[in-house]
Give the backbone structure.
Amino acid sequence: MQFIMIVGYLDGSSKPWTEDEDRPSIKTKEQARQWAEDCIKSFNDTLRSTEAARKLIGVKFPETQSASEAHVWQKTNLVTQMVRSQVFDTLLCLECGVTAKRHGLDNIVLDSSYRAKGFRSCRTAQELLKKRREKKNG
Ligand SMILES: [Zn+2]
């Protein structure tokens, strides 16, 4: 199956990038995720001195169009944040650029400038942000 690995440096020193994979032996998304994790692990296990350790940020599947409705979250903090006894991770969507905070395991709350309903879908968020930029420029 075809899938896209989203890869970054472990120390966050550069923007994440994508790597297209086409592996006929992989049949399920679960296998693809496992393969991607193993791939990064073996890369990190055999690092040359000029290479930096990598981490797997996510795996995307291009054949599922509905996936574009879902944000592709990347954690932007290295360590979990704590403000006024609230513990959270800060997130950035690699597709549309909206930001959010994740409380607990999967309670994701969009940041205050993205509270409109349309931002819940990545596809409509991209349209809304485009409109916002046009407004700013015009
Ligand atoms: Zn998004």
